[in-house]
Amino acid sequence: MSNYETIITSVEDGIALIQLNRPRVLNAINRPMVTELLDAFEGFDRNDEVKAIVLTGNERAFAAGADIDEMKEDDSVSLELLNQFKEWDRLATIKKPIIGAVNGYCFGGGFELALCADILFAAENAQFGFPEIKLGVMPGAGGTVKLTKLMGQKKALEWLWLGDPMTAGEALQYGVINRVIAPELVLEEAKKYAKQVASRAPLSVRLIKETVYKSIDYSTYEGMQFERKNFYLLFSSQDQKEGMKAFVEKRPAEFKGK
Ligand code: CAA
């Protein structure tokens, strides 16, 4: 258990849980929450006991966006000086698997936070969207870029220009999320998946994550060179020796993450 004000965290069986906890404002993401999220994510990333991280909200909302009350008086100079997206950028440096479990509203900065999860499970009642256009702004924490990379330029523009919510079914159809699940099961299924990943060779999990994200920005050739280096790197691990020895000896491998 933790002493955070805007999130609740716990660890069970190697799986860390981070739950957004500002229910009165539908988990609107204020600046203290971003700082606390980073502290929790980076702490779990360093914690050897933790193999995967599950990120969730509550039944009504994953998060209904950045906190509008907090930013309504901001101007471009105050935002530049605040440099708040520096913390968001650090989210992309988390090495362990992040599984997102989304119920209810997932809008604006909340959708951007959800998109920081490597795998996304959503409840049938989840709604995703970037309503920023209705506030006279646009996404600022990667939403425009990530949505375009996930669903393609034409579909992304269609959604970003109107700012209307998409259903979980639509998000699945466009490749934005991984699975649609009954609302009461979404967190359980996310934890179950996290446990499955946690049972795999941890260094392989880590380097596959790194290589997949590099492949988004690299050319096919550059991506394959990067992949090869990581493939070679794994042959320096004890887990590679154990994994292949276990195969030959016809027994389950016991991976140590070394
Ligand atoms: N910021 C601050 N407060 C918020 C909020 C937000 N993003 N979203 C909801 N709330 C608050 C409401 O003001 C309300 O507070 P009060 O009870 O004190 O009035 C409380 O949460 C409950 O909300 P509603 O009464 O509006 O609930 P609803 O079920 O009728 O509607 C909703 C739900 C459709 C999600 C609606 O709350 C809404 O449209 N919220 C704003 C969504 C939005 O525009 N998000 C984008 C924010 S900008 C952004 O995220 C920028 C970025 O990229 C970094």
From TrEMBL:
<dbReference type="Pfam" id="PF00378">
    <property type="entry name" value="ECH_1"/>
</dbReference>
<protein>
    <submittedName>
        <fullName>Enoyl-CoA hydratase</fullName>
        <ecNumber>4.2.1.17</ecNumber>
    </submittedName>
</protein>
<dbReference type="InterPro" id="IPR018376">
    <property type="entry name" value="Enoyl-CoA_hyd/isom_CS"/>
</dbReference>
<comment type="similarity">
    <text>Belongs to the enoyl-CoA hydratase/isomerase family.</text>
</comment>
<dbReference type="InterPro" id="IPR001753">
    <property type="entry name" value="Enoyl-CoA_hydra/iso"/>
</dbReference>
<dbReference type="InterPro" id="IPR014748">
    <property type="entry name" value="Enoyl-CoA_hydra_C"/>
</dbReference>
<dbReference type="GO" id="GO:0004300">
    <property type="term" value="F:enoyl-CoA hydratase activity"/>
</dbReference>
<keyword id="KW-0456">Lyase</keyword>
<dbReference type="InterPro" id="IPR029045">
    <property type="entry name" value="ClpP/crotonase-like_dom_sf"/>
</dbReference>
